[in-house]
Specification:
With 449 residues, the chain is α/β, with parallel strands linked by helices. The protein has 17 helices and 13 strands. The strands form 3 sheets. It has a 6-stranded mixed β-sheet with strand order 4-5-13-10-11-12, with helices on both faces. Strands 8-7-6-9 form a 4-stranded parallel β-sheet, sandwiched between helices.
Length: 449
């Protein structure tokens, strides 16, 4: 008999651990409608030492042995151990830059600030990390004989882009439901270009979510939103990857924007595995940042999580987190409580100015990262984050997906906001003397005054 570990994982009810399902079953909730989670056989994983896992992950990184060159699939045993490598659908996601924001950190009062640039990915957001797992499992299920006509999601933009791209690579039909007029043009064109069936509905994200759940329940379509905990398995690797990039040292704080709240529960899940398997020996503190216009998690935190009440989300420039009824709230509350966490919010002015301020130091932030940066500044101001702390802010998407957000700010056309750091192009006549005089004037004003 071989002593080689036989890794396995399954769906399990969050409320009733005795209720289990196989990962190739079409199931999204437990019998009572509660959330599921993917659970791994930790005893088998513990047969490999902490140093053994570190060495394995380091050896696989940035190499081309399929599929382990991916930042997600390089940790396959911790993610989806039972899948055939031939059914993995990967674009070598992950391994995104951990940007040392040294100059911006000095400005805001943190000596060791890092920005995890998850937008440096195939479709420009962290959603790729979860979608590679979900679409791979669907491809595996189809190979095993499952009857799945398409994969579908409700989205505020980034989820639809990731689903459409990975489904196109797998040759699986994709359907996306978007709130009409509430996503950026760059986000809308991604699923269109990748051949998805795109429905723009006269509702908000929560209304789109209601529709996609009905479709998944009745019409043989597989649900790809983050209430499907397969997505969390991929997204949890962001925390593992950050720790690995920091030479297996745990930062003091990790800050991320929150909308549907699958991201914070995923982050905690990855950190949990690092702790249980002995790769680290302490927890960071976690901050979830919400837009003030869509802040049900923040409001619940203010009440000590005694109750959680959905709200009608109002318009925000951070459109991807304009969600009033997040499906992963229960998991997110658990994560915040276990990680000594806090929840903060940012107004439209605060998120815009934080984004612009950081951009001036070489970043190019999406509005959702602006929410996280604004929250960080509040934590610094009240002393929760100390000058000597190591802080990691998770940037969830690339700024180029939100060009209108940037353009409106610098043209000073943002509704109800007078920008503090606008930098519109300077229009002059094509005269050397005129250009020279203005150039020297601007250099003196901007950098020497």
């Amino acid at each position: 008999m071989s002593d080689k570990p036989e890794y396995s994982a399954w769906f399990e009810s969050l409320a009733n651990p005795g209720e289990r399902y196989e990962l190739d079953e079409v199931v999204y909730t437990d019998r009572d409608g509660g959330l599921l989670q993917v659970v791994h056989d930790m005893e088998e994983l513990k047969k490999t030492s902490a140093q053994g896992w570190k060495s394995l992950f380091e050896d696989r990184g940035h190499k081309n042995e399929w599929p382990y060159g991916s930042g997600v699939w390089g940790k396959k045993e911790w993610v989806l151990p039972g899948i055939d490598n031939e059914n993995v659908v990967s674009m070598y996601e992950g391994h995104s830059n951990l940007f040392w924001a040294e100059r911006y950190g000095r400005q805001v009062g943190v000596e060791d600030l890092w920005i995890k640039l998850c937008g440096n990915s195939h479709t420009g957001s962290f959603k790729d990390l979860g979608m590679t797992v979900l679409v791979s499992m669907v491809k595996e299920m189809i190979a095993r004989g499952a009857s799945i006509s398409a994969v579908a999601c409700a989205s505020t933009g980034d989820t639809s882009a990731a689903l459409a791209a990975y489904a196109a690579a797998a040759g699986i039909p994709a359907i996306v439901f978007l709130p009409r007029g509430k996503v950026s043009l760059a986000q809308l064109i991604q699923p269109v270009a990748n051949g998805a069936i795109v429905f723009a509905l006269d509702t908000d994200f929560d209304g789109c979510m209601d529709i996609v759940k009905q479709v998944a329940a009745s019409d043989g379509v597989y649900l790809a939103n983050s209430m499907n905990s397969l997505r969390v398995e991929g997204q949890k690797t962001v925390g593992i990857e950050i720790i690995q990039q920091l030479n297996w040292e745990v930062p003091d704080w990790m800050i991320l924007p929150g909308g549907n709240l699958g991201n914070v529960s995923a982050l905690a899940k990855g950190l949990d595995m690092l702790l249980e398997l002995g790769l680290v020996d302490r927890r960071p503190r976690i901050c979830v940042a919400q837009a003030e216009a869509a802040n049900p998690f923040y409001l619940a935190y203010q009440r000590g999580f005694e109750t959680f009440e959905p709200i009608a989300a109002r318009k925000t420039m951070a459109s991807a987190i304009q969600i009033g009824n997040p499906v992963s709230a229960v998991k997110a509350i658990d994560a915040i409580q276990r990680y000594d966490g806090v929840v903060e919010q940012a107004s439209e002015a605060e998120l815009s100015e934080a984004s612009a301020e950081a951009d001036r130091t070489g970043l190019f932030n999406c509005p959702h990262t602006g929410v996280a940066l604004a929250a960080m500044k509040k934590l610094i101001a009240r002393g929760d984050i100390r000058k000597s702390d190591r802080v990691v802010v998770i940037s969830t998407a690339h700024g180029l997906k939100f060009v209108d957000f940037k353009t409106d700010y610098h043209r000073m056309q943002t509704e109800d906001l007078i920008p503090e750091l606008p930098n519109p192009p300077i229009e002059l006549s094509a005269s050397y003397q005129v250009v020279r005089d203005r150039m020297l004037e601007e250099i003196e004003r901007r950098f020497h005054s």
